[in-house]
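**User:**
My hope is that you can spare some time for a protein that puzzles me. This is the protein in question:
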Amino acid sequence: MRAAVTHARRTAVLGFGCVLVLLGGLIAGCGAGGSSASPGGGAAGGSAVVRLDDVAGASGVRGVRLDPPVRLPAITLTDTAGRPWTLPAATDGRLTLLFFGYTSCPDICPTTVADLAAALSLLTPAQRARVHVVVATTDPIRDTGPVLRHWLDQFDSSFVGLTGPADAITRLAGAAGVTFSTPTTAADGGIIVPHSSQVTAIGPDGVARVGYQAGTDVADYAHDLPLLLAGHS
């Protein structure tokens, strides 16, 4: 699966809130370029972002520090096993990497999930056991639990999929600074859901302190995860 999608990388801007630091790209969506809006019509409030890139005095992570950190709300969704999922309890004492995407996405979503799987394979077993990868669908009408589970199993059977009411997904996404549009049908009949494509790293306390833009290298994830597990952010 990874070999089939790595050629489709695009660059995105992390959209955590109203104040953005441009990181050399555009807010990108799967199958569509340009900026995207949430189903409610506006960007969610949140936090400014600051690029670190191992500059002097930084914590050493290569991701994007959220300044101030963002405490995500206790919004309940449903995981692919049919169980309720709510932060911070759902972290289960682990680092959670939260991504919003959809199963029929032609490019950014499979690439990002494949890269996360590859990065986790580079960790020690003890480190790997302390990391959750969670994918919340931006297309809940089509991405039922079984559909999402089948898609995630192509990358890593331990990855958690989330679905639920569109308004609940929208509120959690907005709190994480993720925006996405109402699904539309392309000329070829495919479904397109333009959305911003960051990965949000959430600590066991339910607080997000670091994020990653679309196109982050596997090596950068693998570099940062041990640091985040050690509490550096």
Remarks:
- DSSP finds six helices and eleven strands in the chain.
- The longest helix spans residues 108-120.
- The two ends are 31 Å apart (CA to CA).
- The chain has a mean pLDDT of 76.
